[in-house]
Amino acid sequence: MGKIIFSSEYFNVKDTLECGQLFRFERQKGGYLVFTCDKCAYVYNDFDTAVIECADGDEEYFQNYFDLKRDYSLIFNGAMTSEYDVLKTSATLGKGVRILNQDKIETLISFIVSQNNNIPRIKGILQKLCSNLGEKKTFAGIEYSAFPTVEIMASKPLEFYREIGLGYRAEYVKKIAEFIASGYNVEGLNNLSTEELKKELVSLKGVGPKVADCVLLFGFHRSDSFPVDTWIEKVYSQNFNGTLKDRKKIAEWFVKKFGVNSGYFQQYLFYYKRSLEKLPE
Hints:
Elements: E1 2-7, H1 13-17, E2 25-28, E3 31-36, E4 39-46, E5 49-54, H2 59-65, H3 72-80, H4 85-93, H5 104-113, H6 119-133, E6 136-139, E7 142-145, H7 150-155, H8 158-163, H9 169-181, H10 194-202, H11 209-218, H12 230-239, H13 247-258, H14 262-277
Antiparallel strand pairs: 1-5, 2-3, 3-4, 4-5, 6-7
Helix pairs in contact: 4-14, 5-11, 10-11, 12-14
């Protein structure tokens, strides 16, 4: 069993996992099982540390996945020197939130599933997708299912995706799987600028600006992106006195304001508003 021990000052496991950037995890004992691609880890906070337990040989993968080589004190201090009190408050509350380095294809499909959906349903649909199509794996005596390959996903009929609850999103997921399986080079998109990458993503069937921003931030770790949802709209109008109504323009406003720290600050603000108001998903 591999084990990674990290300071909890900038790594609160609960806050990181439950802030809307991923959906394949479940509470287990005093921590969480996290599923990514074909891997699994048990992650928890223990006093002043964050502990990641994983299979031998997966340590480097999870160091990257949890972004442990990045100095989050620089990001936090950037927020604390902001002119906006709400950002300072948000950063203080969400100091332990990290942005994960998730698999690009899994992130793309997951956020297509997330459109006009709530978190319990998103998690349920992804669980059905994995349990039906993913390879069966075992970690610490616990059986789980890997995220399926796009080749297997492409081979399934449209009706399968409707049956697991995808509704109108069924066509989008199947088309994306077929497109990637046919040779579309997702990793090659790394070479594009953030602006070019977003244009490429929204050209894919079923990917709108908000989904693209989520994939940019959580799949490609483009921190100069700023997903805007109901929570961020409320922060923008109530705490930044914003008057824009178009989410694309709101996102552009924040990116212009916060630059390369935009994505990190988005997570602080999202955590703040969601924690305090407990609005429906």
